[in-house]
């Protein structure tokens, strides 16, 4: 499992020409890092007299982030798995018409399946970004730079997931599926940019004000 | 050492209220991830007949990225170390005028020192981003989405480093130092945004065109 590798090993295999981890795994890890910074800020805020009024809300945020953390970590390895299926389909023979038809079908299915992982990376990172946006308002001011870092990295995670969706969509021959998936994921990108920019603005005001 | 922790452990301790790793270590790791994706793209490009003309340039890029990888990984632990020094200075007593003076001096020095790590994170991530910008033009088109992911994450790393610089600068009583550091690091942010946006544009054209 990729998540059991230590940081140095993970970076080394990412840097190599090994097929996995690649951009998808990197996006999922970025999502996990940004989300973890939200948890850190939450954990530094609860139990503090100054933030008693928002304690219950932050406890709820922490619970959601704990779930997101597990999901984003799992997606690092899920991405590697679906990528292997795509690679397998690419290697199928295409000498006869029958083989060509079978290969195209296998490839189409593997790519559609492979799309789902970066879509999930986008969804989970976007959820984490919504929580981060709220933490910019109610989290401990002592950790305000960490909220900002989390928001920046989560935005990168959502947009990175999108690039991985697009490269898979390019190989899929199903116009309706491609159109719908494109619209859905583009919308998530715009939402992520809006949330991250709002969070960043609040962070900078608190940092510089 | 933080880089010896496995991915899951690192994310768990990042999410906790433990003082380190925090936003600085997260920024350095983001830089290492983005830079590693550049190496991956380089490694997938060299040796390919189609990219023979740029092979020598890519070999040079790979050498630079290898150095940057070591530096960015080291910065994860360096950030933790300077942060401990700051925490130590904050805990100094301030009962007498003499103690107050000594504490302010110790804090000023620790914070100036702590600034240097996120500045280095910014510098190294910016260098990696310049290489990524070039890989958008000359790297293997098969890995073009990975170039884009690398650029997005490296931009986040530079801007995240900046937030860590600012939060340290806020505690430093040395107007000249604060002004100079602010100008220098703000300039790096603008450059990172420009490079990443250019790289992203090239990536999208190649992905969608």
Automatic annotation (TrEMBL), chains A, B:
What are the entry keywords? Answer: Coiled coil, Hydrolase, Lyase, Transferase
Transmembrane regions:
none
Q: Does the keyword Cytoplasm apply?
A: no
Q: What is this protein called?
A: Methenyl-tetrahydrofolate cyclohydrolase
The reply to whether Phosphoprotein figures as a keyword in the UniProt entry is no
Task: Write one Gene Ontology MF term.
Answer: hydrolase activity
Q: Which residues form the Cyclodeaminase/cyclohydrolase domain?
A: 7-185
The coiled-coil regions, if any, are 51-114
Q: What is its EC number?
A: 2.1.2.5, 4.3.1.4
InterPro entries associated with the record? Cyclodeamin/CycHdrlase, Formintransfe-cycloase-like_sf
One Pfam family it belongs to = FTCD_C
Q: Which gene encodes it?
A: fchA1
Species for this entry: Thermoanaerobacter kivui
